[in-house]
Every structure is written in C-alpha cells, then in structure tokens.
Model the fold of this input.
Amino acid sequence: MELENCRFYRRNTMDKLKILFDTDIGTDVDDALALTFLLNEPRCELLGITTCTGEAEERAKLASMLCLHANRPDIPIYPGPDSCLVVDQIECSAPQKEVLSKWPHQKEFRKGYAIEFLRKTIRENPGEITLIAVAPMTNIALLFSVDPEIPKLLKGLYLMCGQFSNIEGTIPDNPLSAFINCERIRSVYLGICEMNAFVDPHATSIVYRAPVKEHHSVGFDLTRKIVLNPDEFFKIFDCEKTAPMMDMARIWFQHADDVAFHDPSSAVSVFYDDVVEYEKGNVKVDLDSRMFQGYIDYRPTPEGKHWVSKSINGDNLFRHYRDILGT
Done:
C-alpha cells in the first residue's frame, strides 16, 4: 500500500500530542466518548476545549463536568456562538444538560473568547497543535476567517464531518429526531447529508477550502456501522472513570437503540494508526440547494488536498478504549 495514496502507517507511540478539541457535546453521546478518550489517553496534551451550536454554554458545562471528574480542572473551556454563520440554527438545545444537577461542573465561562483562545493557542504553538473538531464547523470557520494564516500553522486538522460514499435508503429511527424538528433535516434522515456538515453548511465550505496541510475527515458513511447496543456499551464503558458519561448515555438511550462511534473514530485515529485508513481526495461543499446545503461532493485522487476515511476498524477502536479505561 503506497503512502501517497493512503494514510495508514505506524506513528511514534512515545510522542505527546498537543490537542485542541471543538465539540457540540450534549446531544449525541459520542462527543462525550471522544472527550473521555482524550482525557484518559496518556499521550494527549489537551490544551483546551471549545463548544458550539445551541446552548453552547450548557455544552461547556458538560465538558467541564467530564474534565473535573477526570481530575483535570486546569483545561480551559470556552463556549462559542449558539448561531450558525448564515442559516438558522437547528441544533438548538443540549438535552444531556439535565445530568449537570448530579455532578460538579464549572458554572461561569468567559463569553465571546472561544475563537480568540483557539487563535492565540495555535499561534503560540506553531506547527505543533492538532485540532480535533467533531461539531458543526462554526468555530473552525470563524477561526480561519478571523486569521487566515491559522490553517498553515496547524500540525493537523481531524474532523468528524461529511460522508464520502453513497448510503442506500434511509437512516432508520434516527434518534436526532427527538431533538431536532425542521424541514431541512430530512436530507440527513434520508442519508444524503451528514449532520456536522449540514448544520452550518457555509462554515463547512470555509473549512474544506482552507489550506491545511494535514486535513483529515472521518465520514458518517463508515462510522454509522460502528455501533454498540446498550448492553454492549455499558459492558465496555461503565466504570468509575466514566460515571458522568454513563448518565449522559442513559439520556441518549431513551431515544436510541444504539450508539454509533462517529466522533471517537476521529479522535482515536490521531493517536492510533490501526483504527481509520485514509485516502486522498478533494472535497467540495454544496451551498446552492436550500434542502441539501452541506452535501459533500468527494472525488478521490492521489493529488487531492484532503485525507478522507476509507475504512474503520471497530474492533481496534474498542480495544484502545478498553486499554485506557482498564475495562
């Protein structure tokens, strides 16, 4: 397998990696899974967390809850904007916020500082920071727009965003319908668009046009196949380290029959090369159709500027979680 066509090789397992994490934690439980991994992975130097979409401050509280439980009160957390760049926000609430009454969490945050925090941190560590974004692209697009040099100062950008092969038929019993109800989101339920790319499509377009040297995306077309039912999920993840996340998961399972490992696939692939296999191609984001804004047009090519997920190994993904959680 030639390296110019595929990103799948052994990383230096001793290196610490400087990470920034952008998330819409509080809707699907997979954001909490990704943050739990980062908090427990010994090679992760987590420099900060930003949140976005509706009730961004409640989402920041949820992130702080997980950080405090992991004995990491030092990690800075900043809520970004609740709104999208152009279209109306459809991810308006953070349903998992109800667990906050049970767990300690930070209650006040510096507002309006998320983008400047990302910009300042990256500029202070040029070429050293990997930015993991598993939310709609609002914060990242604002960052790249405010400071156009930032994409070139990143070590890498890892997204859970888009889908890169066709999905036949509908996505049955989509649990997001319990939280989001609007005409536009039908394209997500039909398997045409992916949620993170779709929520703020103009932001998605900005992020994929940015000149990031190591621009990686893990797609919904693959992560939707990496699932656990509640019994399987609790067997692997229910331990003292994950107690607040388990409460978040219980809210998710009130509306869902399983959990798909969308966001964790991207986060874990930064540290382990045996989870996601990437290939090169070019991504273009559709902004012309009102119903399908955020649709990903992907064309594989060895000369492409984007690394896109080609396959995902769920067994290896779960094995790495067991190793860091001791389950």
Notes: The longest strand covers residues 276-285.
